[in-house]
Amino acid sequence: MNAWLWCGAALLGVGLPAVIWGVTSGPLARRVLAQNTGSTVVALAFLLIAQGYGRPSYVDLSLVLSLLGPVGTLVCVRLLADDLSRNRPRGATAVTVLSVAASVAVTAAVCAATAFGRPLMKLVLIGTLVAIGNVIASRALSAGVVEETDATR
C-alpha cells in the first residue's frame, strides 16, 4: 500500500463511523447534515484511492458523487422543510468548514501529483464542486426553506 491508499483508508476510517453515527441517531437535522458530510467523505476518498491505484475511472465516480451528493441534500431539505424548520442543526458551520478544508487539502495534494492537462482540470473541478456543493447544501439546511406566500408569488 502506498501513501495515497493509507490516506484514503484513514479518511474512510475516521469519517464514515462519524457519518454512520450521525445518520443513525439524533434529530432529523443532524441526520441530513451527516448524509451531506458522508457524500463529501466518500468523494474525497475516491480521489485518494484513484491516485493510489492509478485508476482514472475512480475520479469519474468522485465527479458523479460531488454532483449528486449536494443535490440529494437539497432535495431532502425541500421535502423535509416542515420538520427541519422546527429543529435547525447545531454545529453545521463547523462541519462545513471542516469538510471544505478537507476537500481543499485532498484536492491540492492530488493536483500536485498530477501532470498539467485535462486530468488536472478535472481534479480542480471536482474539488471545487465538492467544496461549493457542501457549502450550498449546508447553508440550505441551516437556513431552511422559506415558504412561498401570496406576497412572494
Q: In words, what does this structure look like?
A:
This protein has helices at 3-24, 28-53, 56-79, 81-86, 92-112, 118-143. The protein has one domain (3-143). It has 6 helices and no strands. The protein has 153 residues and is mainly alpha-helical. It is elongated.
Quick structural gist:
The chain has helices spanning 3-24, 28-53, 56-79, 81-86, 92-112, 118-143. The chain is mainly alpha-helical and 153 residues long.
* Relative strand content: under 5%
Shape: elongated
- The residue-averaged pLDDT reads 83
Question: What's the count of strands?
Answer: 0
Taking the alpha carbons of the first and last residues, their distance comes to 58 Å
The structural domain count equals 1
Helix content: over 70%
Radius of gyration: 17 Å
The major pleated sheet works out as: none
DSSP helix count? Answer: 6
Order of helices and strands: HHHHHH
Question: Any key phrases for this structure?
Answer:
153 residues, mainly alpha, 6 helices, disordered C terminus
Write the layout of secondary structure elements.
Elements: H1 3-24, H2 28-53, H3 56-79, H4 81-86, H5 92-112, H6 118-143
